[in-house]
Amino acid sequence: MMVGDGNSNQAEVELNLAPIIDCMVVLVTFMLISASFLSIGILETSVAAPGAADKQPDYSLELKILSNGNLNLEITGKKSLKRSIASADLEKSLEEIKATHPDLNSGVIIPGDEMPFEQVIQVLDKTKKFVPGVSLGGV
Amino acid sequence: MIPAKTKHVRKRKAYSQNDEMSLNITALADVFVILLVFLLKSYASGLDVTPGQGVQLANAKNTTEGAVPGLKIEISKDGVYLEGVKSVGFEESADGKVRAPASAVPYFPELQKGLSEARSKREWLKNQGAAVPNEKEVLIVSDKGVPYSVVKKVLITATMEGFSDAKLAVIRE
């Protein structure tokens, strides 16, 4: 017992960390190489199906995307409205409509079949800001 | 008699021979552990949302940071992949546009079969008492150049199999 105590006082035990560091360097390098630094978000939507809604809302928006990028906007319900708008003016028009139709929370976007998905996403993104319950149609 | 300067040099030499100089790497190990934990945590998001090779996502601002659904459908310029397995192959058109194979039905029967199997697997897991994510949710990772007709067909197929809540993967602006 005494001999052991004397021994530990004299020699210091040192853990060799070099192999652990080596492993970590390899792991961290591998992870940094394979990591994706793009910030991917989720855009929620649903498919508009006829008769899917349980209760008919007061207003409903229909946004038809034309092949030239312009849009035909139609609101059905109590205060019906029809308007043709340029793609650049979509946000401005929706803001105006939201002011006169505050309960407008549902709608459908109808893109053309040949329309690139990017264009559909742009319209969906802008519309969702003002009409959260908008869904994709054309079915 | 040895001069004072030579005496000092001799003393230093003797010291370096007896004691090995060691670098303290404990702090370095700590930094690596933190880095490793951070990277592992960012990896542990459940499903891999990263698009496949050649798939370019569209940009959007009004995105959400909700939980990613457990089922992933990827639409690239060469086909539709369900959980990384090719379900539908696209035809190459002369104008370079993506064309889905001509079909009499407005959905992809092969994809429907795959989704049906995925749904059955989920139901079995649920019956076994396993935690199953939202049964109606599906993640759609689509290339931005794909025509809407293809995405529409995928959406119709998913809705037919009960996956009506589509979550579209986009690049956050």
Structure commentary:
- The complex is a heterodimer of chains A (139) and B (173).
- By secondary structure, chain A is α/β, with parallel strands linked by helices.
- Chain A has helices at 2-10, 18-34, 90-100, 117-130; strands spanning 40-46, 59-65, 71-77, 81-85, 106-110, 133-136.
- Helices cover 37% and strands 25% of the residues of chain A.
- Chain A has a five-stranded mixed β-sheet, covered by helices on one side.
- The termini of chain A are far apart.
- Chain B contains four helices and eight strands.
- Chain B has helices spanning 4-18, 26-43, 109-127, 148-160, and strands at residues 59-60, 72-75, 79-82, 85-89, 91-92, 98-99, 137-142, 165-172.
- In chain B, α4 links the parallel β7 (137-142) and β8.
- Chains A and B meet through α2, β1 and α4 of A and α2, β1, α4 and β8 of B.
